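Review box. Two proteins, two foldings.
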Amino acid sequence: MKRLALLCLAAVALAGCGGGGAKPGKTFARSGGGPKPAQILATVGPTKITQRQVAALVAYSRARALEEGEVLPRSGTALFRAVQQKAIDTLVTLAEYEQKAASLGIHFDRQAVLERAKSIESEGTNKDTKQVEGAKQLLARLGLSRDALFAYVTRNVAVTKADVQEYFEKNRRFYENFPAAKKTIREQVLAVKRNNVGNAFFARLPSEFKVVYKR
């Protein structure tokens, strides 16, 4: 059940809203003689999260589970509902990331999404279904948005000589015979600072959005 519990960390792997690359809030399910609005499970501002999108992520989860010899819980069980809720939560996060990115002037074209989707692990030798392909595009958009937001909010993070020296003094025994110690320390301290800034940003980001779940 490990894969199911970590349903959509492949992005952020991630890290795509609207199976098949449709734009947020404009996903439709086809039935009978023509298109009709898909079942809406949640909204994040103007973005609608649909049953079709959730089904795509569940299909991806099923494919990954089967590849690892696991079995998706039966429909209607508590575990299956947990998988669906994880998919909904992932789509909520995606909507928040994309809306925030758009407000900062950050956008991605379809080709960038498709290229990122190609990097997401395939399921053995079997060809991906359309649902799984759609899920990979969801995850690709999630990853692209997160990476871009992280780069934006950490663009001005810097490390001073004093920061490097302080770290060196605290860890002198380890670094005193280390080749290019100061350069290595600078990279490590910068990474820590960037992660701290990025993590704080993503932790408070949901507070900027109103999420409504449809029951």
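Next protein.
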Amino acid sequence: MPVISKSADIAAPLEKVWETITDPSRFGEWQTIHVGFGGDAPGPLATGDSFKQKVTIMGMPGEVEWTVDEVDAPNTLKLTGAGPMGTKATAAFTLDGANGSTKLTYDTGFEGAALAPLGSALEEQSSKAAEESLQKLSELVS
């Protein structure tokens, strides 16, 4: 499973960043791949929750059914996802706050035979989307 890891130093308090990333109703404000939800937007995320998120990567639409595996407020959020054609995804957010700012590390991975033909192009586009999302998040909460 290719794993992409990106970090950002955000000029905002830990709690503000945490509240934003764990509120699905705000995903569209900062997640560049987010299109909507398969159903109503879920409330703030808690361990065991699941929800369907519509996404677009490389111009291709898809839907991921996410399960929240871990919520350790305000430091860790981990999800696993099941996508179309047997694809799988992971997403982990790790936050560390000090002096009114937050270091956010975002790790994401994906696998599945349906993704194999896309190879390095998918990895490159996912990396770019992660960077752009972290930049938008930083601008949103700072």
